[in-house]
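Appendix B. Extra example for self-study. Work through it before the problem class; the solution is given directly after the inputs so you can check yourself.
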Amino acid sequence: MKIIESPELDAFRDECRAWLADNVPREKRPPEGPAMRDFDLAWQKRQYEGGWAGVSWPKDYGGRGLSVLEQLVWHEEYARAGAPPSGSMFVALSHAGPTLIVSGSKAQKARHLPTILRGEENWCQGFSEPGAGSDLAALKTRAVIDGDHLVVNGTKIWTSYGHLATWQELLVRTDPDLPRHKGISWVICDMRTPGIDIRPIKAMSGLTHFCQVFYDDVRIPLANVVGEVNGGWRVAMTTLGFERGTGTIAHQIELSNTVDRLIAAARDLPAADGRGRVIDDGAVVADLATLRAEVLALRSLTAASVSRGMREEVPGAEGNIVALWFGELSRRVHAAALDLLGPRGLERGGDHDWPLHYLEAYKWAIGGGTSEIRRNAIGERVLGLPKGPSAR
Amino acid sequence: MKIIESPELDAFRDECRAWLADNVPREKRPPEGPAMRDFDLAWQKRQYEGGWAGVSWPKDYGGRGLSVLEQLVWHEEYARAGAPPSGSMFVALSHAGPTLIVSGSKAQKARHLPTILRGEENWCQGFSEPGAGSDLAALKTRAVIDGDHLVVNGTKIWTSYGHLATWQELLVRTDPDLPRHKGISWVICDMRTPGIDIRPIKAMSGLTHFCQVFYDDVRIPLANVVGEVNGGWRVAMTTLGFERGTGTIAHQIELSNTVDRLIAAARDLPAADGRGRVIDDGAVVADLATLRAEVLALRSLTAASVSRGMREEVPGAEGNIVALWFGELSRRVHAAALDLLGPRGLERGGDHDWPLHYLEAYKWAIGGGTSEIRRNAIGERVLGLPKGPSAR
Amino acid sequence: MIVDLHPTEDQRMIEESVRAFLADRLPVERLREPAHQGGAAEAAAWAELTALGLFGLGLDEARGGLGLGLAEEALVARALGLHLVSPSVVAQMIAPHLAPDDALRAALVAGETRAAFANRIGEAGGHLIDGAGASHAVLLAGGVALIGIDALGSPEPVDAIDETVRIARMLAAFPAAPRDAASDRALLLLAAYLTGIAQATRDMAVAYAITREQFGQPIGAFQAIKHMAADMATRAAAAEAQCFHAAVTFGRGLDDGIEAAAAALLAETAALANAGANIQIHGGMGFTAECDAHLYLKRAHLLASLAGGRRLHQRRLLGTAS
Amino acid sequence: MIVDLHPTEDQRMIEESVRAFLADRLPVERLREPAHQGGAAEAAAWAELTALGLFGLGLDEARGGLGLGLAEEALVARALGLHLVSPSVVAQMIAPHLAPDDALRAALVAGETRAAFANRIGEAGGHLIDGAGASHAVLLAGGVALIGIDALGSPEPVDAIDETVRIARMLAAFPAAPRDAASDRALLLLAAYLTGIAQATRDMAVAYAITREQFGQPIGAFQAIKHMAADMATRAAAAEAQCFHAAVTFGRGLDDGIEAAAAALLAETAALANAGANIQIHGGMGFTAECDAHLYLKRAHLLASLAGGRRLHQRRLLGTAS
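Solution. Structure tokens for the complete assembly:
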């Protein structure tokens, strides 16, 4: 346990900060749709041109080739500067790109990594299915080899920005006779291929970020398989090591800012009974103080996770602890906002659309593994408790 | 939904109240041991002599033969008068006696009901075993028929007041070849029988109320079997209807009194920082108010349970809702006490021994079915959710 | 006092007729269509709602009502919550009790004059909820008062968390009303509505947990889901028991204000927690606008806000607020 | 600032040597014997505890210490919590930092002069914890101060929730001490001790859940138990991360008071919740005095109280308390 510091890192941090101060977009990011995607791509392009795309990505493909420490500093300064979320670039930057770096062929890397870093193309994810949400290994989308192509039939759901993406990282079942986790392949799918039908799904917040994607005899070149045919599960599992726990820093700092904003509002707003301010109620103090402690702990848990990530090639199940803490905390923070802001807090729009953020916050305890699935993983893979007879 | 009232019930209530006002023991009840047992028996005797034992028990065996409404009124007035807990008489009055009334032979009733009501003999329960706590049907204590006796070998645990009781309601396995719930018999066991070894267990509160009981070739007359041999599960299950949901009224009112006592303490005690009183902190208001609402709900849930009980012969699984609510609330109430009383609240003894009550409160979410087992029952038997593959 | 919480035959009939009508004419799915939101579907069914006797249920016969009690009104309000009926229908049930004269009262009971909820937000005006067609507002302002809608100034539409109601922001300032028997009655009906939300979401979650399979079995077989559902059932049962206990004993010597505040606190907690758990149990589907789960969550927030919020109930429970 | 929370080789060695010593000489089971309670077992191991360097660990070498940091002290305090070592050992670690002169400091580091915790209860005196053999008290009074034990008046033994420590009630009145760097350091060590309790109870519950069978399988296979254990692990991890993050960054420009208050709040919550869950997972056995589970619960309450309690931490986190 120590503070990692060096004149070089300090200089790098100053450099990040200076560039971000000059370059973070001042205009409001569109909330959804093609305008949002174009904004995200343009911002990525600007980062690339400034030399800030892919801080720890290989130099050969347009990255900076620096270490996880610089990557960490960049993430921190990025979030502190209030830079926009990576949004529709997230899968490309934090998942598909890293997967290709670890498991892609030279040709696949050369084709895709530069277009990601330059903000020319973005990606979406095709993992979950209507019958395989929490239980990913139950996926049924079928791919049959036909000559030098795979022919895909089936459907994927919860595909973020599927209607706005150029490429998709797609898990398909290439051999239904093998055990569940075998027989799956990881494929690069061009979203413009004939036979793909994309149906956007509106979330309860009113935003349309998700899609269901239908595949009807969709032909994908065999050359687009990453890793081995039937080796997709391993490809998907080893991806996660690349970010080394830094991927959630932006969300962590954003949530911390939200708590600060909430505390400021409680100091500012008159109490419901007209006497004093909202913060004068000890119950409000207790709630907000607990949330402040919990976001500090989120920062600390993230630091612990990055500390482990710097030493492990394949991340352990401990990441589920950070994810569980974040998911539950995020919902509590936003629920507390609605609780203490009173009736005015129910109005949409405004400087900070509290109901929108509250409704969106539900996704963190559902998407990418529900809190229940994460508790299973913590119980079984961190604590070593026996599997239930049901979770085969 | 209505208020049940009649001049007769009002008169009965006045009668209860008057007798209790004159007769409730003023001396402090000993906290444990034979002195406590003797106190409990003497108080039962006094109730019997006053004509108040077994308000709804059959007249033939010394009861008053009145309806559930009078029983309810008696329970309410009993608790309001601050009358002592039934303690070491609880099993006899609330479980073994009712079981005999419903399932006992004439001879069994004639032998036991009067001695219970007169406070001459008390009972304990022999259901749980070290390997069969939550899973009662897994009990292993064996009873083999030998002539006109059962010969019992095995052990029971969590037997409240086992070292202080004359009789025991004992569940034994009389046929190990039958399915788990079959092959069990309900037996009246004389605790003075040779071969019985009783080992008291100290609770974490320091009180010794529980025992483990060992049976080494204990001979019990076959005539002591209640209901059929191998029919004990049904006997045990149908018992519970007798109380018609009134059995928990004393605990409910006691918990309500505890919350009132706590609120009074918060109004009275200076705040930790010396400014004002403990109650001036809005967080304390929030906690105590929530507890007050929750004990009111406990009262209302109990009323709902009694309303159902007046109409059903065999109680449904809804009783688990009241028990779950009570168990969790009881622990929260006492934890709140320690929290708001500060360091002084950690001292033992005093007018109200808060740590003692806090530590004892853990039993309600553990004893007689843990909160987890109750949630299973609510999920499966109230809501109709499917059984897990494990809870065979 | 012995309180029998089992519904009488008459109570069961009233509740069932209202439920049957609502299931037929105002099913929750109607809210998927903007055209049926904002009280529009209720306006279309107004004659039948009036004919069901909803608006004079708890009013003395001498005052033009059916002479039933608060318990019957609460049963109806709970049914309205189960179906996410426009809060204006609850307002219309409350309004006749507040009417200052016979003519207005009769017009309210007959459904000819219509009321909607408005709530006071500190000194800064307030919100009018589903006010289309209403000439009067049941103003929730600590206590409760019936006022002409003109007194609200010119309400200006705003978007709010629950897009299935129409909310207008008013800029006129209103004095707080004192807590009295009428406001305790109103609070209990809001609590009953919230209890309906808690029960509807429990039932929706259970139905989904029985049919939806993951890992080769219905998700309701997993303890994580089963226990979440059991907690939903327990919260709903507590809110229900307290709500109806308070309603049936209303005016009988206990402290109605404390009983009503307890009901409102428990019902708010149960409605919000159950609506959230229902979304969680529905997983990704629950997060979408295609699934009705979010409608309950949003309405629960709105109703909890109308009822005054848990901090107010808590202060009342300890007598540290008026 | 990049904070590496992975222990250095030196840190690992220090922690392991302390843990090995405690496992050997002060296993938790010792507390089943009254003769080993109240700091008696620690007194018997005093020479070795001193020889391990515990009491000068974080003190500058110039002031007679080992020159290590707060992080190393926190690792040791956590180990003390894992073994429910007498709080006086923590007091002895804090005391040298508070000593006003070299002689007293040297005597404390050498273990020749002994200290124990005392805490101030409002204006009304306070408690002295395991004070046998101590001549000085580390007085926890909002802030922290080292005073001669004579100043406490004549302490009078009382029974308290944790019967494995000896508590005396003092009647002398003490002024509150201001919060300063020393009190933040002390608070962090108490938080580390509570984190130890949270982790020990997590591990005890997991070990039991793996071996204990019900319904034909280890209870840890049931989601109800598994998820309870997962929540225990998560709470413990949060407390641990915050505690060590605060310790390693101490004095480096962040607000140490807020960081320490957060650590104390999370560690109190984790210790109390995990100690309670450990009892719940142990079922009936956990409720008995024969199972060690209750020892952790009782000590958690005592330490939470010494640390000042969650309401104080909360006010500090928002800057609404000194």
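Self-check: Chain D touches chain C at residues 222-224, 227 (CB under 8 Å). If your reasoning did not lead you there, revisit section 3.
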